[in-house]
Amino acid sequence: MVSPDRPKATLGRDATDRTIQVLRPLPGGAENVAFSASSAASSAFQEDTHTIRIVATETCFYRVGDSPTATTGDTRLPQNVVEYLRVNGGEKIAAIRESSSGNLNVTEMSG
Prior knowledge:
Blueprint: E1 12-13, E2 19-20, E3 24-35, E4 40-41, E5 51-56, E6 60-65, E7 75-77, E8 83-86, E9 92-97, E10 102-110
Antiparallel strand pairs: 1-2, 3-10, 4-9, 5-8, 5-10, 6-7, 6-9
């Protein structure tokens, strides 16, 4: 629920007046999570975080939750593909490799 004291986010517009998603990184809200054959989790997201941006150096699987453990049955993230996810403050993201170990770059975003 959005606080009545907090302004509602609005979408930006491009040159053809189409709405575009406009977000910015939260200060101190970036982390690299090294994943391997074992699940590895991020730090807990800041309480005011509702969106994260993720991209991985190698293909991986991920799970978001209060205390997540990723498995190869979770959502697959191909190498170098950027995704934006809706999250709640205090949650974490965990990742596990598909075939090669790598890093999951997690950036907390603000609208």
